[in-house]
């Protein structure tokens, strides 16, 4: 159940250009996939961009990697809570807004993912 395997199943028409006439290899961990990528045993890794940016930002030479973006559908993330937790939702939203306003979110994005999202 990796997200890469899900994307491979969910976006077959989009991915056919990337893996035409090749057999995808499924890895247990992203670390294992990067080991094979670094060793030249594979040509690329299909993974969520957030994870890719994290892994690449922490490599010895991040500039030796490239993230190929295409027409993948955008992904949204959320904090889950009970529908009745209005006070909690308000506090979380206020906290997130404050972290964005004071630049903390941008600093964390740059540190951990190597890129600041708008």
From TrEMBL:
Top-rank lineage group of the source organism: Bacteria
Listed InterPro entries: Solute-binding_3/MltF_N
Keyword terms: Signal
Solute-binding protein family 3/N-terminal domain sequence ranges: 42-115
Protein name, per record: Arginine-binding extracellular protein ArtP
Organism listed in the record: Lacticaseibacillus paracasei subsp. paracasei Lpp71
